[in-house]
Amino acid sequence: MSRSSASRVAALSGALTLLAAAASASADVVAVDKLAVLPAGPAAAPTSDVPASIPAGEHVDGIFTALAPAAQRKQTEDHGYRYVGIFPTDAQARAYATDGSFNVLSRKEAMPAACLSTGGSLQPGMRLMLRTKPYEPPKPSAAQIEALKKAHRWPPPPPPKPSGPPRDAVQRLRLEKLTQDGDTVTIETTDAMLDLQTMGARLVSKSSAKLSRVVTGPSGLGVFAARDDKGQTEFLVTAPEIPPPPTESDRPAQLEALSMRAASLVAQTPSSASSASGCGRVRFTLAAKAGSGQMATVIATAFLPPATEPDEGPATDDSDGDGEPDDEGFIAQQTSRRGLRKQRARPLAVNVSLSQLASESAPLLSVTFGWAGKNQDISF
Amino acid sequence: MHTSRTIAVILGASSCLGLLDACGGGATPAPVTAPLAPLPSSASCARVTDPSRAPRPLTLTRAGSTVALADIGGKTFAYVADEDERAVHVIDVDGQKDVATTPLGGKPAQLMFLPDGRLVVTLRDRAVFEVLEPQADPTRGLDGRCAVGTDAEPFGLALTPDDAQLLVTSGWGRSLASYKAQVPSMQQSWDVALPREPRSVIASDDGSKAFVAQAVGGQVSVVDLPLQRVVPTETHATKENLAAASKAGAFGAGLSSFRFTTFSSMGTSCQGFALAKTEDPRGRVLVPQALVDPGNPLENTPGYGNPENDQTEVADVAVLDESGGDLLMASLEVSQARLARSMASDAAHAHEECLLPRSAAYDAKNKSLLVGCFGVDDVIAYDAFAASPVRAMKRRWDVAAGPSGIAVDPRGQRAVVFAQFERVVDVLSLAGPELVDDVGANKGGPAARIHLTETRMSIPTSIAVGRVLFHMVGDDRISHDGRACASCHPDGRDDSLTWATPNGPRRTIMLSGRINDTAPFSWSGSEHTLQEHMGITFTRLKGNGGLRSMELDALAQYVQTLAEPPAVANAAAKDRIARGSAIFHSPAAGCSSCHAGPLATDNLHHDVQSKTTADKSGSFNTPSLRFVGGGGPYFHDGRYKTLQQLLTDADRKMGHTAQLSGDDLQSMEAYLRSL
After folding, report:
1. Any idea what the CATH number is for the domain that residue B664 is in?
2. Does pTM top 0.90 for this prediction?
3. Which residues of A touch B340 (CB under 8 A)?
4. What value of ipTM does the predicted structure carry?
């Protein structure tokens, strides 16, 4: 493990100052009292009513839509629906429109900076389904019709006629963009509406929140926090860092194999919802007042040094140094030539707690790490 | 699963049992000091030798355990209460050696250092605590000073922060007593009655309260020390505490779906043996326990408990506010382990929960609660400041079987653990990163292991094996959800619960001292041997029944030899007991026609009109009345909370008591309590 685990217990006053520091701070932990000077607060929830439609010409910065090539859409459209690809970058949208590729995790960056959600899990890109024809149930077989007749349920009543375009064509959408500056992260949130029919997008609101690092966990996993003025504390847990590859030429294959695993986080939050993210970060809010407490558990993956020496493969001598293969075949070729690499990984539980006894003057924040499963080897 | 390893260790050591040779680890025999002669109660408890030359308590925990640490010449020594050998061992922790054994006159439960270096030991089977004085030379063991009488079965020890009050719990005697710790006689100041089966005790930092863990009953007793008033605090969700938390608008008031309760049952809690409290910041009392869902007794279920719960018992650590005694409701939210398992697809951890917590200590450096768990034989470090500590497990160590005591040595950043079942002292490193990259294993092990020397007869091998099996958590042969025999029979007694079963409601039966010559077994009386009864029980627990006959026999032998609860001395009530006996055995009362003989049972079936809607039969096997006074609630469905209620409300269903005067009823009750 490149960095030690850490357990932080901090008492948060009204201004979020640290009253009691833990003894086991790791070197890269920022004192929590920095939070006190950061303007912070969770993004406001969008409140606008959903319009019936949005003209195609309307656009929101950072939200890009595309349809896959017609040939690829045909099969789904024959069945009465199609997918609209939604991306935080123009390049991803263009790639989807060109060949239907949906490689939302880059081979150059371990974690995407911008991600999207429709209220559920945060994703580096998404495909939303739009029904293009009214739903038609499958036709019953002769035997089924006979059974329905016996039950006096045949013929069935005619389905209601659709009035206007499908009502789920306009969807709420959230774009989150994360920038990190040392031990501070800034999350810029854009709430918008997207018309899947016209692919027009309308801005609802924009907000920004700064959170400061509470602790750094194994594999560089980060826990950031900021307190709002309503007694709630917002947390952000960022994914573990993918370790340096054995050789630079291994980097693309390594990212291919590990980035999805690294980006996958699942949070169990006090609202009883499990919030999944494929974007390498997960946000949640905890609150505590005298006599109560709340906890969240995030399951992530820690990447650990090999338990045994990796398989030896032939040395690579043709790397151009940039480590950027241009196609899948190149990666396969590289894998074939150098032999399999292995990366040890282990599920990790990040437990974040905010609690305050009636006799305590302020909530106590505590973050701990524990293993949540066994070691596994991931080959690439 | 540790079963096979532990049993192998015990069997391996069996050749030493009963001999005066050193055993385990090939250790050189430790010097044995002369057995302490029975200490006169009139003797002074005061220190005799110069305190400046005495061993100095390394950490003045002011709370009892089976292990306490002292500094002698800059080295750490552990004083260990070994109930099997009825002795205190002195362990050189740095030298990893058992250096002295002082035999005692009884079975030690806990020991604790007083500030001047004297050691107090409760003797569970002798109704006394003894005050001992460690010698300056640790190889010379301890000298006895005095014995002070207590209620039956003294167990837990604590000292108030001003060192003025020594607090002693009595398990079978159901009491907390205060003794004057700073006077030579250590005379008793007062005592208060407690609910069933009190165990460990700690005093609050301001000295105003004592917190007493209760092995059964789902509560902690909070005792106001100046007023000597007991306030029970429920340590599980109840309608009342949920409503109060909700009314107060508390966030995380245990109302989320993660809490253990289900739609049909609020459940309860059990296994409160150990306690710890936090430092820096102070004020949190931590209560390791198990949450239990026995189901709705008026429903027939496939096994024991609520079928809505796939895990009838789960580990928990309740958090109490030291100042007010209030429960932090969020500490009852326990689902992290299951969540983690499901997310990580890690079924291997499914049954490794701490369902039998037996020891606890606070690790100030790491701000962790250390809990010693029987059955899984681990010490687990939880985040002591988490809203629900059990959801924030930081580390676990694989230790020898039966970790009955933990002491933290801050100087060496280590924990010293006494594992009773293997008679081993394990030393755990608390230094370094808490999240240890334990490659190739799920747990870390001890940094050092010190085997106690054996100087006189301990317990027979088969019983030692049976004890391990009785406490085995997570053994698929016994149950599918990790439950052990000791889950429902803590200390071989009973959990005071009424379980939903296929045959109707069934109140757990106390085992200790009530097995021999009482066949057939169970309320239904359908099993004629213990092995047969255990087989049916394991089937109901959905165990796969793979115990070998040798193991079943060892388990049966352990159950048959469980120590009887001690007699409750009540000389003052002698006449009343005699009167009660006469009434009990009179034809008019009609009790002894079924509750006959020395065990107070005819071992036959009778219908006493107690059938409930869920019962498949109204005929029940007559239970033995031995130790009935220490049990309760009563009847197969636990319908009578007290003996008094049983005597008055069961009239004409079972005997005739309506004609008895209040005085006669009291005599009957006194007689029953004497059985």
Report:
1. 1.10.760.10
2. no
3. 297, 299, 347, 349, 372-373
4. 0.87
